[in-house]
Specification:
Layout: H1 2-13, E1 24-29, H2 33-41, E2 46-54, E3 72-79, H3 86-94, E4 104-105, E5 108-109, E6 116-119, H4 122-138, E7 148-151, E8 156-157, H5 165-168, H6 170-180, H7 182-190
Parallel strand pairs: 6-7
Antiparallel strand pairs: 1-3, 1-6, 2-3, 2-8, 4-5
Helix pairs in contact: 3-4
Length: about 200
């Protein structure tokens, strides 16, 4: 009887029901956020990918001013850790950008396009550092890996027209992506066509 009342009190208090999906959040930067949504959205277990700004000091950045306050374009990934692990997300990140360029990504130049891993806790920090070390030892990239690994701060979602840009504007997106040099770089590093 006590168990029944405990269960009812948890439901009333808004506790998640047994078997409810767990959700974790990862925060990465890899240059243009338009190009970073798709690779993560394809993973089973990823629930949502949101483009936005992080890493700076200004509040409520916009597309017009985020770089002026030290922010960078980033993606916030909400995922079910029972289906996809943080290590897998890190692997996708390293396969989707150039971690050796601290001053931008491909055609997009400036610190607002710097690559980075913004960890939520010490476990994520350790995994991020291990991934960086793993790719360094594998000598996949011809230059040293310089992406920043820093404690996550406030994430500010970008304007609605940036969300799922690659789906809403496929022709413009594909033109931009090809002209940016991203796919050519990824093809040369991973020795197969980028997807």
């Amino acid at each position: 009887m006590k168990t029944y009342f405990l269960f009812l009190s948890l439901l009333v208090a808004g506790a998640p029901a047994w078997g409810a999906d767990k959700e974790d959040v990862a925060l990465f930067a890899g240059g243009c956020f338009w190009c970073m949504e798709g690779p993560f959205e394809k993973l089973d277990g990823v629930k949502e990918v949101v483009s936005g700004y992080t890493g700076g000091t200004g509040a409520k950045p916009t597309y017009q001013n985020y770089g002026d306050t030290g922010h960078t374009e980033a993606v916030q990934i909400k995922y079910d850790p029972s289906k996809v692990k943080y290590e897998q997300l890190l692997d996708v990140l390293f396969h989707s950008m150039d971690p050796t360029d601290a001053d931008g990504q491909f055609v997009d130049r400036g610190k607002q396009y710097r690559p980075g891993i913004y960890y939520q806790n010490e476990a994520e920090k350790r995994e991020a550092e291990a991934a960086k070390e793993r790719f360094t030892k594998a000598k996949v990239f011809s230059k040293p890996i310089v992406l920043e690994i820093v404690k996550a701060g406030k994430f500010w979602p970008a304007e609605d027209y940036h969300q799922d840009y690659y789906k809403k504007n496929p022709v413009r997106y594909q033109y931009y992506r090809y002209r940016s040099g991203r796919d050519q770089f990824l093809d040369s590093v991973w020795k197969k066509p980028a997807k």
